[in-house]
Amino acid sequence: MKKASLLIGLSALFVLGCATPPPPAPPPVSDIWPKIYEDETYLTGFESTWTEDEAVGAIRNLQNSFVEHNANLPITELNVDAFGARARWSWVEVGAIQKSAGFIIPFDQVTSVLLESYPASDKAFKWGINVYISGGNPVVLRMPNRDAAERFGKAVIVLAKARKSPLSMPNMRFGAAVGSLTVDQSRAAGVLQSAGVIISWIFRESPAEKAGFSAQDIITSVAGKTIQKGQELFDLIEVAAAAGATELKIDGLRRTYRREGDKYVEVFIPIRFSLPIAQPGGTK
Amino acid sequence: MTFAVTVALFAAVCLSAGAQAQTPAPNQVQAPGAAPVTDPASVKPAWQIEKEISSAPATPVPGFNVFFVGYNFPQYSGSLADELAPWKSWLNFSFGMDSSMTIKSSLLNGVGGDLTLNFNDDGSHMLMNSMAIFGYSFNLNPLRLNLGARLGLSILDVTGPGAVSYTGLGYILGPEASVYLYLGSNTWLWARGRYSYAQYAMLTGSVPSGDDQLSTVSVQAGLAFDL
């Protein structure tokens, strides 16, 4: 009897021990953090030595190389005039009705040009250019390859500079979109709202990407100095670059999850980044 | 004794494996306030974890809708019990389907049956209960506790030596409790206890008058599979 009880007890233990633990519940969705986009934005200043004529020629030569982003229609007409670049595309609707639409890029109102790729797109053209215009909607184009996209970007920048456009390109020494912390974000991370900035997205091929930064990282101090605005970060990087530094220590917090039993717990891990700083001729 | 030690060791291994499965990854154990991590690549951002979770193929959460089969240990009492005493059988099975309305604790229903067969030199004996269950199923993840009552028909047939042969059709009802333990891979281990009362309305053959009632305490166990 004793032996039978022991066997039953051990069998019960065996069964309980082998029972599959339930999978952890997904973490609760929080919308206070910067949204993550599938599109990838590359850091480039579109530097070139092109003249205005060469830039105009480059745009005209791209006549058959890109499509309008949303409609996925090829450009049927592309020209550059004194005002800017004009493009038009057309399509036939039900009932053989010919329709067309177009865009204008006024070079004197271009504020920024970004090189994009859409790896998750199901469309054939996975490279693109976003041209931001002061007081207007951005013009979004897609190209079959990076070279075509970069050529268009370079041409727009050359012509925008020639027309004294209020250009505001990304900071090339960091390469990330940075914003101030909101009350909710600072409360969640346990830092003062005045003691950090948050990264919205990281440009591909940027120093920030090389340093290991990720979107939603919080930067709390640069070389030991607390920062509150993105511009303070960029200024401190410039100071370090001017002093001949080849890297800069940046402290921050990374939001992540720790598994505790059957649930995910949001935690913020302190991280020290080493931002590479390009110097003419490499190291100091 | 050797078997007991083997089972104990196996249980220890299984418990250890379960504990390891819940251990956080090394990059997730550092608490805020600790020294800064110098390799950012060792800390996976929350948005990446959220993306992995949302894009991972949904793990099918086992709903409670199972087919069960197992062995039945009946103990008879009542006026027919003496008649059935010579027909001790080892062919006792229980089978059926149990379903609850949702994966959470909810109402339970299902159908099931018990089958007892015996063939020997004296003849044959067959007892079959075909029942429906109504009750409530409690989700005690990974356990499931079902409480309810079964109601159905019972068929009894005995073909014995000489004139000892009879057939009966009656109703059967009674409360039952069962426990299901999820083992993974859509498989459950179950055990059930039931008291049932059967009254045979149409009993023909050589049965003494008044011997028409059978009470059964059933202890059952087996495996169940998600449908």
Automatic annotation (TrEMBL), chain A:
<dbReference type="InterPro" id="IPR041489">
    <property type="entry name" value="PDZ_6"/>
</dbReference>
<dbReference type="Pfam" id="PF17820">
    <property type="entry name" value="PDZ_6"/>
</dbReference>
<protein>
    <recommendedName>
        <fullName>PDZ domain-containing protein</fullName>
    </recommendedName>
</protein>
<dbReference type="InterPro" id="IPR036034">
    <property type="entry name" value="PDZ_sf"/>
</dbReference>
<feature type="domain" description="PDZ">
    <location>
        <begin position="200"/>
        <end position="250"/>
    </location>
</feature>
